[in-house]
Amino acid sequence: MDFVRKAALKQSVNQFGRQLGLSSNVTDSLPGGGGGGSGGGGGGGVSGVAASISSAFGRGDDAPAAAAAPPAPAGGWGASTAGVDPPANYPPLLRLFYVDVDALDASPEVRHPLRVVHTLFIGGCWALYLNFVSWLVLLIRGLGDRTWTLVLTSAFLAGAGSLGLLCLYVAAFRGAASSSVSVQAWALGGLAAVLPVTAVYAFGGVWVWNGWTRLRHVADASGRGVSVTWRFLSVIESLVWTALLVTTLYAGGEWWRFRARTPGRVASTFARGHAAAAAAEAGGVPAGGPASTIEEIRARYGVGEV
To answer: What is the pTM of this model?
Structure first.
């Protein structure tokens, strides 16, 4: 009777092994599993069955090494780029940063705040160079001997301000491409810094600022009718900078609401495409559901034929 029980146990184990996709005779290769061994041999067979079943799931001591999965970034901008550095493509000629609006979520709650910041970026650059052109025109018109210093100063501020606005737009893009509140805070902080600058350009009347208060101080000191040109340029600059001041306030409100929502589905298609390519290259099964077959288990854990 002891022999019959061992034979039945052997047949049951072999059938269970074939269902797992193992070799047809599991107990033949296990310690104590071949033939009618002693009681100790039978115990070894049972422990060997457990080891083989564990190896099928990639947990045995003799299981092949699992395929190394690409490291997942913790969050923030790295999460939106799958932990790699995309090629710089913006601005078109300088190529200093990576910006691809088409890679973002197409919903208005993601695109609209970024579009407002882009409008501020373009308008601010035009306004800064308008200030430079205004002082250049006044220099040509003969405003004074020291006007050239204001021309150089406005040129420097135009270049530095344009770079600052570019960084603001890039920070806004990164904030829109990630679900990290800390990354989005950079754009919000940049808007807070731009707000007083636009206010000074819109209302200032000293140094290089041709704001609304400049109209009260313009005088025809040279006697060549320069004040008319100066007043005209000041009105144009004041209108442009006032519009930018309103745009900055509106962009700050939109970005504050966007940061409060923090949608989790704004990860860029760059990240999704890179993750899919990495999974395909590794030969693994993408995450999203439990493995239901032995083939999926082997593909996920890198386990070959046993």
So the answer is: 0.63
